[in-house]
Write a structure and sequence with these properties.
six-stranded antiparallel beta sheet, Calnexin, Calret/calnex_CS, disordered C terminus, alpha+beta, 521 residues, unfolded protein binding, ConA-like_dom_sf, Jelly Rolls, membrane
Length: 521
């Protein structure tokens, strides 16, 4: 059976203490304080800390109270939206035998889930004899520090202090400015002039109705049935705005408005001047601190003989368990495995079974409560992928696709005449030679000794011969025209019909293409 200490009443002062089997002096390398606490109903305002009582307190534990001296106070404390995990050392000065409280500096933020999540939390304090300390919650470091530099007030007393016996001299003047006693009030300064005067230039508006009141009794109002004139007095209808004054400048007696009085100057006072006797703010002189000393971390800590829980809380259902005071971190870690972590796993199992387990989103929020800087990490993890996707999808502009207007039919288009230069300059000579050879072939005589081309009739022939020649030419022209028409009809090639050009046509078309290419160049 698991046993624990519980405080079941709210808005009460609680106190309980127990004596240690052996006093704990600070002759060891370290000491460890560990316990777990659970706020079943949350926490509005109150604590959950331990007090390690100083030597001598064990003699009267029945009267344990807030004034009982302690050596270390450690544990959570919350009020409103502010939470702390206290670590307070009560230190003794060996020179004057006085005790002073020194508080460890708190982190910038302490997660409120320690109080509000209704779960058990493990609080651990480890203090080394070198002065270094660490405060952990649920096995994770919350804050750490050094006793000689990170406590407030500082554990090291000041080297100089103000002389308590020093007295301010009677002639010491701390006034930086004084009244000018030589100043005289001007003769034209009239203190009786009012701050405001009636505006004599103001005139009553033409639509001002002095015969009507600005407010009238509500004619529709009725006296309540439960109105008792003996108790409530005479009943009167409430006042409302006079509808007859609606749209007018005003109703009732007209009065001229007031304006600032140009002659007003107020009450005359003497001006201030610099005090020639001013010596500054007086303070006692500094002297060497007779109680100055450079402490060792454990020297001023009195032995611990008892442990107590003394707190005022506004909430109920606070459970303390597994309180450990030791000199071994290994023992504390092993006990935590056997107690707290088993209890923590059981709480998570019960929460999951009841459907109250925290999801991934809640775990993320809890993590940011402990470490607020994680919000920046989460933000970057969300924004950077979005930016990368946006750049990848929308950042690159696609290059313009060239428009190709390929000819898909045999119909004539204007670009048919635009022939690219397919012949280099060094090929032009070869083309000219081919053309020249073909012309020579045409001028050579055929097998009968005549040239291939018909002879041109000489210009010196007689007119009768020319007339007969013209008749023959006209008849031959008509016959040749008919032959050309038949030849054109024979040259018509139907669509998709293969054509096999003759050797002579192929040569001529090749020459023609080369000439066209040269001409296009």
């Amino acid at each position: 059976m698991n046993r624990f200490i519980t405080f079941e009443l709210q808005a009460r002062h609680h106190a309980i203490a127990a004596k240690l089997d052996e006093p704990l002096d600070f002759l060891y390398d370290k000491f460890v304080v560990q316990y777990d606490v659970k706020f079943e109903e949350g926490q509005e305002c109150g604590g959950g800390y331990l007090k390690l009582l100083s030597e001598g307190a064990e003699k009267d534990l029945a009267n344990f109270q807030d004034k009982t001296p302690y050596t270390i106070m450690f544990g959570p404390d919350k009020c409103g939206a502010t939470g702390r995990v206290h670590l307070i050392f009560r230190y003794r000065n060996p020179f004057n035998e006085t005790f002073t409280e020194h508080h460890a500096k708190q982190p910038s933020s302490v997660p409120l889930t320690y109080w509000d999540d209704h779960k058990t939390h493990l609080f651990t304090l480890v203090v080394q004899n070198t002065g270094y300390y660490t405060v952990s919650v649920d096995g994770k470091s919350l804050y750490y520090g050094y006793m000689l530099t990170d406590l407030s007030p500082s554990l090291i007393p000041p080297k100089e202090i103000f002389d308590e016996n020093d007295v301010k001299p009677e002639d010491w003047d701390e006034r930086e400015q004084i009244d000018d006693v030589t100043a005289v009030k001007p003769d034209d300064w009239d203190e009786n002039e009012p701050q405001t005067v009636v505006d004599e230039s103001a005139t009553k508006p033409s639509d001002w109705n002095e015969g009507e009141s600005e407010l009238i009794a509500d004619p529709e109002a009725q006296k309540p049935q439960d109105w008792d004139e003996d108790m409530d007095g005479s009943w009167e209808a409430p006042l409302i705005d006079n509808p007859a004054c609606k749209g007018l400048s005003g109703c009732g007696p007209w009065k001229a408005p007031t304006i600032k009085n140009p002659k007003y100057r107020g009450k005359w006072v003497r001006p201030k001047i610099a005090n020639p006797a001013f010596k500054g703010k007086w303070s006692p002189q500094l002297i060497s601190n007779p109680h100055y000393w450079l402490p060792e971390p454990f020297d001023g800590l009195t032995p611990i003989t008892a442990v107590g829980i003394e707190l005022w809380t506004m909430s109920e259902g606070i459970l303390f368990d597994n309180i450990l005071i030791s000199t071994s971190e290994e023992d504390a870690s092993e006990i935590a495995k056997q107690t707290f972590y088993v209890k923590q796993a059981e709480e998570y199992r019960l929460a999951s079974a009841s459907g109250n387990g925290s999801g991934i989103l809640q775990q993320i929020i809890d993590a940011t409560n402990e470490k607020p800087w994680l919000w920046a990490v989460y933000t970057l993890c969300v924004i950077l992928p979005i930016i990368a996707i946006g750049v990848f999808c929308f950042g690159k502009q696609s290059s313009a696709t060239p428009s190709f207007n390929n000819k898909k039919t045999d119909a004539y288009t204007p670009d048919d005449d635009k022939v690219p230069n397919l012949v280099e300059d060094d090929e032009e000579e070869g083309i000219e030679e081919i053309v020249g050879d073909e012309e020579e072939d045409q001028n050579r005589p055929g097998p009968s000794g005549t040239q291939n081309a018909p002879p041109t009739p000489p210009e010196e022939e007689e007119e009768p011969q020319q007339a007969s020649g013209s008749k023959n030419e006209s008849s031959s022209a008509s016959s040749s025209a008919a032959e050309e028409e038949e030849e054109k009809e024979s040259r018509v090639v139907h669509e998709n019909e293969p054509v096999e050009p003759t050797e002579e046509v192929a040569k001529k078309s090749q020459v023609t293409r080369r000439r066209t290419a040269r001409r296009g160049d």
